[in-house]
Structures
1.
Amino acid sequence: MASAHEQFRNLAWKCGLAATHQRQVIYEAVIATPGHHSVETVYAEVRRRTPSISLATVYNNLRLFVEHGLLREVSPHSSMLLVEGNLAPHHHLICTRCKAVQDLEVADFVNVKKLARQAPRGFDLSQPLVEVFGLCRRCSAKS
Amino acid sequence: MASAHEQFRNLAWKCGLAATHQRQVIYEAVIATPGHHSVETVYAEVRRRTPSISLATVYNNLRLFVEHGLLREVSPHSSMLLVEGNLAPHHHLICTRCKAVQDLEVADFVNVKKLARQAPRGFDLSQPLVEVFGLCRRCSAKS
DNA sequence: TTCCTGAATTATAATGATTCTCATCTAACA
DNA sequence: TGTTAGATGAGAATCATTATAATTCAGGAA
Ligand SMILES: [Mn+2]
Ligand SMILES: [Mn+2]
Ligand SMILES: [Zn+2]
Ligand SMILES: [Zn+2]
């Protein structure tokens, strides 16, 4: 099997990205540990190996890796506060590119019983609200 | 039926909130139009009736209304970038209070066929990713 | 109605995550 | 090895949101 170093060089080559030392270290910092990583934790980890790295480089490359499908962004929402007056339980459809939000009035695509069974013990799902991510018509037409 | 003014005074009284003119106008700006409202649009609308209102008051009261259940926050997730290396399709369980994210490996609580039928035409759901909101064990124990 | 008091509002400063700028550096290729 | 487009680092800038603190007001008592 190839070394982690070689694996990353391969991936970078496939994406047309220069395989810099910084990218190598950032990528490995995320891949090394399962779970969800904040920029803060990645930056802290990466600085142990490359103390001179810039925070901007971490941001730039995490975004780049997400764009190229090497990493996944956990919650690809708009980061700004949105509010609504419709209190009737309903779900949302969110475009991962333009962050547009549409209502999904009908909810029968969710099997609440199965969901409750799969959730960890103690997690309160008495009013489970669901968001589904995809690409809106306009964005999927572009790509 | 009571006037919109009286309706709001009733709701505010039930929550123990002072029924100020600003709160009245903010609440009505959201309620008047169906759909999802950003702070920017609420602020613009509200200033037409009350030009002296402060942006901080809009933020404060939108948060307050959400806390008291008069309004709903559309995507109650952490606003900071989170990234993961696990590219295998899987879903997430998010705590609306502390914003913790957990994986939901099994996905059979989603009926993809029904979902596709209910989504608007042209919406790309070829890899639908789902987030379910609830209260994690720790947070639901507190409340 | 008038007065009182704690809460609400306002203007503005502060915060904090993220992005931008640009001078310097380097990976990739010939 | 030399060239160069693209990457990096340091710090400034941005922008949404929150904190501060002085002023005003809602709501209850007299
Ligand atoms: Mn909605
Ligand atoms: Mn995950
Ligand atoms: Zn879109
Ligand atoms: Zn929680």
Note: The two ends of chain B are 35 Å apart (CA to CA).
2.
Amino acid sequence: MERKIIVTSALIYANAPVHIGHLVESIQTDVWVRFQKANGNQCLYFCADDTHGTPVMISAKKAGISPEQLIDRVHSQHLSDLKEFHIGFDNYYTTHSPENKQLSELFYSRLNEKGSIVKREVEQSYCPKCDMFLPDRFIRGTCPKCKSENQYGDSCDSCGSIYQSTELINPACATCGAEPVRKTSIHYFFKLADYQNQLKEIVSAGYTGKSVANKLEEWFSAGLRDWDISRDGPYFGFKIPGEENKFFYVWLDAPIGYVASCKNYCDKNELDFENLWNSGDYELYHFIGKDIVYFHALFWPAMLLGADFRVADKLFVHGFLNVNGKKMSKSKGTFIKAATYLKYLDPEFLRYYYAAKLTDGIEDIELSVDDFVGRTNSELVGKFANLASRSIPMLTGKLDSTLGELDGDGKTLIENLTAAKKAIMENYESLKFSAAVRQINALADEANRYVEQNQPWAMVKTDLEKTRTVLTAIINAVRILTIYLKPILPKYAEKVEKILNVENLKFADAEKLLVNHKINKFERLFERIDKKQVEKMIEESKDNCQPAAEIKNEDSIEPIAEECTIDDFAKIDMRIAKVLKAESVEGADKLLRLQLDLGNCQKEVLAGIAKAYKPDELVGKIVVCLANLKPRKMKFGVSEGMILAAGPGGKDIFVLSADSGVKPGQRVG
RNA sequence: GGCGGCGUAGCUCAGUUGGUUAGAGCAUGGGAUUCAUAAGCCCAGGGUCGUUGGUUCGAAUCCAACCGCCGCUACCA
């Protein structure tokens, strides 16, 4: 009987590009979804970008664009990267959507009606200059334990200790450098403890695997605390109904994004959302990493329960990715972006490698570069692709491209292959992909041994029809192995289907035989990895690993600022100035020291334009100077004003000038 | 400090309820081949299964302590 299944993988945060760590989960989920589909089940895969919160807001500010522009751009990058890895979403949406807003408000109002929301005053760090509350990650300072400088507000990278941001020595706002103050505000809290008993029931009914359930047991016995679900503005997110400057915390609307993505899909395809999500007709599973178990095993099901939505049947939790025995590292070049990988290597190699490593457990998985290269070349290329390559061209070249029938030995081989189907499918179903890959490899070994024992290359010289019989067995083996690998290698499977002149192989086809059938010309299925490609990829990752938002983009247009009056403008005294002298500043690579003639006075200005202009180019030039700017003491001297310029930065800075005729000292207005 | 997890060949990992000489792939060495993407086949070396005790006829497997790594959490049991 056909199963109906809805699957989600964790939403990807819109602050950075997709990297090979994200891909563990995308690939795990996609393989499982493709397995379900190839097994004749209906399976829908929903995901989205997680777009709200302070980090997105600040990244957008840094890039000089609006958060909406940032998340739009990142959304298309994410989706195209993931699609290149053949992640077959049925819908990849965004949390910044009307559906998500409406659902977030619905969840909130239902939770509120149940009395699960309370208000309470909290005291937090606040940056008076940026005019906003600061999450711990946006406070930097000296670690109170080991005195390392420039550490995050919650923990120290250097000694690993955990502390409160108030304990930091010399705390500073990460964006502007100002010292944060403590400030109180009313926050909304979700009373998680109200749902403790229901959550315990869900867990004991098998919501998670055993090791995660143990972890949850710890949390239960420690007691469930209220969860702070509001943030004060400015905050990029959804406004809390009835509030002017309060927003839902990003983690409130993020998981609702699963539901919103489903809703959006239903609306687009004229399906009944209630039936899909709430009726119980569909099995419902979330794939997540172990870092977000707390949210998905406690907050999220509690929210669903409180808002009268259906809770998922199971949580599938995986571990982290390590590369060469260590956490992914930007300095080592192992923090590899999906886009960088794609420049050098075939996405199916990574799919295969991850599948070969993934189990149903929460252990971290290890990507060892040497192992990756070795395994890809020996298994994917040497066993699977080569099995096709050593049989199919012989049939097309010497035997009219036509398969014959099987003899006794051939039948034995094929029966062994089909007999393994059940166990392989069970391993796919229970997320033991590594076991499935092992089994499939053993079958490929058997098929390669069969080739060796029958020596079609010798036989073809003496007995063509017997050779056809042998090749028919081998090519049927190729076909069955392809079926087994198809969830992992969809593109490879497509190529094989084309060569074998068959359509859309499914698991049900493993019992069928392809006999007396004409096939197409062979094409190479994979190219082996040259280790140099991997080295280049790692080399490139060493430099090129800035978050997407920090990459300057020339055509990004900053949104127009808040309205101001003519009086506001009058405060700003801009004057025409002539550059009398320009010199580089020793020890500073971005600054030039300019001597400006302002008609009745001169000013010395330090301008950050050294990357764009040489000193000589500026001498004699007419520029616009902000003349009444408070002088600022800098490391290299006092700057008495600033000159106006535009552009994204670096080499692309353009100093404003004026048409001929103006005189130094004239006011701009 | 507390709780949890992990520790099997140079590397990546299997090892089902305790049961013959602990397995696979990669890497290494040798051999026979040559259809194939320097692929495939056969053979070999390589492990005190973190350490030490215990339970048992029998332990990689169960128990305890310790060591090492990782995670959560913290002066509160």
Note: Residues 544-557 of chain A have pLDDT under 50 and may be disordered.
3.
Amino acid sequence: MLTRLFSDPSLQSDVHKYSGWAEDSESEDSKMKDDDLDHERCRLGDDDTDDPELRGSGAHSENLGEDDDDDDLGEDEEDEDDEGAGEGDAEDGRPKKRGPKKRKMTPARAQRSKVRRQKANARERTRMHDLNSALDSLRKVVPCYSKTQKLSKIETLRLAKNYIWALSEILRSGKRPDLVSYVQTLCKGLSQPTTNLVAGCLQLNSRNFLTEPCQESGRYASSSFSVHSYPYPCARLASPHCQSGSNSLPLRTHGYCSAYDSLYGGSGSPEYNSPEYEGPLSPPVCINGNFSLKHQSPPSPEHEKGYHYSMHYSSGLAGSRQTPAHNLVFGSSGMRSGIHNENVLPYHDVHPHHERPPAYDELNAFFHN
DNA sequence: TAGGCCATCTGGTCCT
DNA sequence: AGGACCAGATGGCCTA
């Protein structure tokens, strides 16, 4: 909010005045910005110096505003030592400047400073790009991934934290968690939109909680949230072919898609190579069973063995009735139907092994026991 | 249009 | 001195 407040052009002059006060000098960045012609924030530049050492020199500045009587000091004053500026500060009630005397800003020094600043900017950009790349990598291994509707940075971190926590709890307890608590754990602290997104990715909107007997798979039909009987969704999501393919059920919502898109879209789907998606899928979070990391597609008897405990979505879920009590927090936007996890592409197929979170192997082994 | 999110610039601080 | 890291400031873009 403060940023917003400061963003108000009507307030910016006051903000800069404040900045000048707070930093006991004119705004140095105004000079720095002058050096960067492609940046719009050069608006305050009135000096060709950009050496931070000149901060607090008491040089003239519009930033100091109308109450600053030092404006008439002129540029000559800028090269004076701190004492002069300090006295001026004292008159303004500002603390006397301490520290080494300011060195005169020669053109050579100014040029060096400018280059230094530009290099620092480039490094900072690179650093932030690396950070964003790492965040993208993280997005791909949390239970909800979409290239079209990326989680925000903060939501990615929150979800990752929750995910780690949930997996840790699974390992610690040695039990399959309750579906509801699992989802609640994942979504703890997330915004409502993100919660809905995650729930959608997990195929867990309200209707999923009111299950009808599984009519298609016939395996995990249940009307309860039984840990052992409820068909947990695999959150291996957002396939590269996440399109409303002709052979896919309408699973896509708000730009993300579920594992089912990949299932029904399949490699043979015309949409499979949609340029919209090209990254790896999110890992499975089939907490009701093993993580099926070694599944192959198309399914084979080995696969059946592999996801013996895997989630199976009931087509009946799509049309199932729901009661308000089951609405939970997920809303109803993310409902999908007709989900068969037999068709879920194995995580191993879409995630290079080196990208697989280490926990998955352990968890996979665990659920195979 | 307000608010959220983001990229970028910037100066400060700490460390090598 | 220079690099890494951080946080504040700012403007752009997007969406409800």
Note: The longest helix of chain A spans residues 107-141.
4.
Amino acid sequence: MVDDVKSPAELTDLFRAQGLKVTPQRQAIFRILHESEVHPSAEAVHAEVTRELPMVSLRTVYQTLNDLAAMGELVQLDLGTGAARFDPTLTPHHHLVCDGCGRVTDLEVDFPDVSVPATLHRGFTVSSTQIVFRGRCDACAAAVPVHP
Amino acid sequence: MVDDVKSPAELTDLFRAQGLKVTPQRQAIFRILHESEVHPSAEAVHAEVTRELPMVSLRTVYQTLNDLAAMGELVQLDLGTGAARFDPTLTPHHHLVCDGCGRVTDLEVDFPDVSVPATLHRGFTVSSTQIVFRGRCDACAAAVPVHP
DNA sequence: CGTTCATCAACAACGATTGCTAACAAGCAA
DNA sequence: TTGCTTGTTAGCAATCGTTGTTGATGAACG
Ligand SMILES: [Mn+2]
Ligand SMILES: [Mn+2]
Ligand SMILES: [Zn+2]
Ligand SMILES: [Zn+2]
């Protein structure tokens, strides 16, 4: 079972409960995240939002995404693709990252053997484990047969 | 057996073979990388270099680190710690990243079970697998006992 | 020694993100 | 409804890490 980002209605309640106001801009962001199958950057969310509300600033999008991440309703990923990616899937999972187009795909597989051996952790306390498989997605592999 | 960055002498030969000149600045960078136990950022390398050669510009450091990375003699890591880190250990391995101080520690352990199941890779071709354990190093765990 | 290339300084510029602030508008009370 | 209060927004400046540009200088290599 996958723990996804809450529905726009639930996020609305949550924001009100935190004393935050629920604006049309925020509601649009809630909706976009809830419907998103990808791992959008702030820019990408902004591009979506401005299709409905052309005047929303990128600043506002960052603000709301940060608020959601701070509440734990959204996961911020830094995968070395330039911009941070926001993940509406809250359950811990891993990722395939395409070096060609930057596409991020979920890998919902548990690797129970992956942990730091007690003899090697030297006092380090692990709070999260991220596995990133880098390579090329089907589309990018087809586009560049041999050499770039 | 660990495949480390080549010695200053070897890198000197390599640069000459590529038609690149070997300057005191570059030699200092070669030496620093060869002696480094950490995963320095370009800034950190620059700070070291300027202890010997105070006039070396950060631009030159970036240039040389990029040259080395392009030759495959140095690995550039993006671990979400702000600046890129340069890794003198060339053998594939994994990392512990401290969320407190940004320290990066090697984990030279092989996890043979970590791979993308054939039923799930959907045409994705994996070229590298990175495992990052995030958490707190001993020093940072001690510094922040309960709450920040 | 002469050619070539690297370096330097001093910038500007970049992309991603955050800080600042004046103007605005949502929420609430009367 | 009206008006007040306060959170929110848009717009812009600024930040950080990194790269591009310039032209003058100097060093490396053959
Ligand atoms: Mn994901
Ligand atoms: Mn390493
Ligand atoms: Zn791709
Ligand atoms: Zn630490």
Note: The longest strand of chain A covers residues 125-136.
